[in-house]
Write a structure and sequence with these properties.
Radius of gyration of chain B: 18 Å
Structural class of chain A: alpha+beta
CATH superfamily of one domain in chain B: P-loop containing nucleotide triphosphate hydrolases
Oligomer: heterodimer
Distance between the termini of chain B: 16 Å
Strand order of the largest sheet of chain B: 6-7-8-3-9-10
Strand content of chain B: 25-35%
Low-confidence stretches of chain B: none
Largest sheet of chain B: 6 strands, mixed
Number of helices of chain A: 13
Mean pLDDT of chain A: 85
Structural class of chain B: alpha/beta
Number of strands of chain B: 10
CATH architecture of one domain in chain B: 3-Layer(aba) Sandwich
Helix content of chain B: 25-40%
Largest interface: A-B, 30 and 36 residues
CATH topology of one domain in chain B: Rossmann fold
């Protein structure tokens, strides 16, 4: 940038300093707009990113083969057992699949020493089951192949082993710290008979916004085996707990995420009529890629954040119009100054640049003031309405960029207006 | 002394600074065309000191705007310093104004929020002069109009006469070839006006070309020649 342009930029900056009240008014408008932007981005965009991060733990590389829900009494259910697991391995030959069968039952579960029981999903699966998810063990350990399954009875010493989801541990032992749950015993029912299981580990809860998640999940009417499994309020048991009865589902983990679609296609070709959960009436097996479920969840949260984005964009637009109007009024008051500058050698572009610098500077200063304002506003909102909120430095960068954009947009008309002024016309009002 | 209305050989002459060849300026006022300046010839030599008199609305200011490259003629050709500026792009006209022409206005037209020094610096800023040099030259220009002790004062802190001297310093700081003064004493008392006129006359004696617009015959008498503007036409008094 040459010296002349730098001087013009300096004139713009000086004007901002020389007219503090005018600059303050403009900056205030910008501050409000940016505060709202930060607020909404932190709430909507932040939540969306969090949820996207959460669902990415649900096994994007996993394809589930499961029994269809019983839509009518006596509805035939297809067989799903070791033979089908072996067939799945054969169908997916070449894709290096890890076949993880599971048996799943609902049962009341009560922590010993607790008075209330909770109805939860029991998931009996081999130790490889943890590979279908991406969830760390928070306390204790995961199941091993030599863990005992226990024996029926309430007084027996033959206690089995189990691992609890973090949310399940909270429900079963509401007053106990998760780490202290390890080693405690829970009472549940296996095939109608009571069974005691000792907790050997607690999984982290992958759902930061559990309530929102569950609202979505139920709202979608998708209380399927997959979604109940992925609600992460399960009790995990050794594989042999339910004996050798039919599987509830088979999870297939593929080493290469790119092979998921092909694996799903191959399995659908053999077992399923439909790819989605909307038309399940034939009694054939359901083939379901978790990625689809995750994408549906992502799309749903995206809609929410889109609405949020529309809100702040609308507010920025209104602010741009307000600031632009303020600038236009200011320019009208400065006709003589503009005319004089043109007389003294300012080009049209110099005038436009100066007005733009003034607009961008005030909007930027206001925007910077709006950042903490938005942060505080979002934090207050979180406290008042218990809404999730996340603030990151990059949101501040986005908001700063928005402030600059706001300054630029709001300066277009005033700068154009000022640059087009004919000095002779302005001076004619005063001369003669 | 040459005849300012005789432009024969004027354009080619080294003595000519500003030459108007059939220059006219008309405006549209609604559906009506107004000839603010009827086609006229004018030859202004380097070092000339011309006064233009005339009643209000006679076209004096339009003439000044055309001469100052603030307005374009709708007819004819304007040669300034040998260049046809009547069809020059706006960007180049700005440079011509910055390098060649100094303006003094009746109402001073100073930047109210800036010091006298910063006001005088303004044309140098658009000329790309380094800041340090701007400061020195602006200080010298203010000193040349007797305001060396007023450099930090804002216009509101100066008398009318002082403000006009700041405006004069601003016009002179870029050492223009042509000084255009529009009623420079119109808002001043006799003493203050006299000081401003004396300073302008001094620049004229040093070789600067000056065109001064005034209603006042006494002010016009300071010029080497007085022209009369009536109904958009320029003539002898």
């Amino acid at each position: 940038m040459n010296r002349r342009l730098l001087s013009v930029v300096g004139e713009g900056l000086l004007h901002v300093v020389r007219h503090p009240l005018r600059s303050l008014l403009t900056a205030f408008t910008s501050a409000i707009a940016i505060a709202v932007t930060v607020n909404v981005i932190s709430l909507a965009f932040g939540m969306q990113e969090d949820i996207a991060g959460d669902v990415d733990r649900f096994g994007r590389n996993t394809v589930d083969v499961g029994l269809p829900p019983a839509l009518a009494p006596g509805m035939p259910r297809p067989p799903l057992g070791a033979a089908q697991a072996a067939r799945a391995a054969a169908i997916l030959d070449g894709l290096d699949p890890l076949i993880v069968p599971r048996r799943q039952r609902a049962s009341p579960v009560r922590g010993e020493g607790q008075t209330e029981s909770e109805r939860l999903q029991l998931v009996a699966a081999p130790p490889t089951y943890l590979r279908t998810l991406n969830i760390p063990v928070a306390h204790g350990r995961w199941l091993r192949s030599d863990d005992p399954v226990g024996a029926p009875g309430t007084e027996t010493d033959a206690v089995g082993a189990c691992v609890l989801d973090g949310a399940a541990a909270e429900r079963i032992f509401p007053q106990v710290a998760p780490a202290a749950v390890v080693g405690r015993v829970v009472a549940l029912r296996v095939e109608g008979a009571p069974r005691r299981m000792r907790v050997v580990g607690i999984l982290s809860d992958p759902l930061r916004y559990r309530e929102l998640f569950e609202t979505f999940d139920e709202g979608k009417g998708a209380r399927t085996l997959t979604s109940s499994l992925l609600s992460f309020r399960n009790v995990y048991l050794p594989e042999a707990t339910f004996g050798d009865g039919p599987y509830t589902g088979i999870s297939i983990v593929l080493a290469d995420g790119g092979a998921v679609v092909e694996a799903q296609e191959r399995l659908i070709g053999v077992w399923a009529d439909a790819r989605d959960l909307a038309s399940l009436s034939s009694g054939r097996l359901v083939v379901f890629a978790r990625g689809q479920w995750m994408d549906a969840l992502g799309a749903s949260t995206m809609q929410g954040s889109m609405i949020g984005n529309l809100v702040w964009m609308l507010i920025v637009l209104v602010a741009a119009i307000m600031i632009s109007t303020l600038h236009l009024i200011t320019v009208r008051e400065r006709y003589d100054e503009v005319a004089l500058r043109r007389c003294e050698g300012a080009r049209r572009s110099d005038i436009a640049l100066q007005i733009t610098v003034e607009g961008v500077t005030t909007a930027l200063l206001g925007g910077l003031a709006g950042l903490p304002l938005g942060y505080v506003g979002a934090a207050l909102l979180r406290e008042i309405v218990q809404f999730p909120f996340r603030f990151e430095f990059r949101y501040a960068l986005v908001a700063t960029g928005v402030a600059v954009f706001l300054g630029l947009v709001s300066s277009v008309l005033p700068a154009r207006h000022a640059a087009r002024l004919q000095p002779a016309q302005v001076l004619s009002r005063r001369l003669t | 002394m040459h005849d300012p209305f005789d432009i024969t050989d004027c354009a080619a002459g080294a003595e000519a600074l500003a030459v108007l060849e059939g220059v006219g300026r008309s405006y549209r006022s609604g559906a009506v065309a107004v000839d603010a300046l009827k086609p006229l010839d004018l030859c202004v030599h380097r070092g000339d000191f011309l006064a233009v008199m005339g009643p209000s609305g006679s076209g004096k200011s339009t003439l000044l705007h055309v001469l100052g490259c603030l307005d374009r003629p709708t007819a004819g050709r304007y040669l300034l310093n040998g260049h046809d500026v009547s069809r020059m792009p706006d960007r180049e006209l700005a440079e011509v104004r910055n390098a060649t022409i100094g303006f003094v206005f009746q109402r001073f037209h100073l930047l109210a929020d800036e010091s006298a020094l910063r006001n005088v610096e303004l044309p140098l800023l658009y000329g790309g002069v380094p800041r340090a040099e701007r400061r020195v030259r602006a200080s010298e220009a203010l000193a040349s109009v007797g305001l060396e002790d007023r450099v930090a004062h804002r216009p509101g802190e100066l008398s009318g006469g002082e403000q006009q001297r700041v405006a004069l310093a601003r016009a002179l700081v870029k050492r223009p070839r042509l000084l255009l003064a529009d009623e420079p004493t119109g808002n001043l008392d006799t003493a203050a006006g006299g000081r401003v006129l004396e300073r302008i006359a001094e620049e004229s004696r040093r070789g600067m070309t000056v065109i001064l617009i005034t209603h006042d015959p006494e002010v016009a008498a300071r010029a080497g020649r007085t022209l009369m503007m009536r109904d958009g036409t320029l003539g002898h008094p």
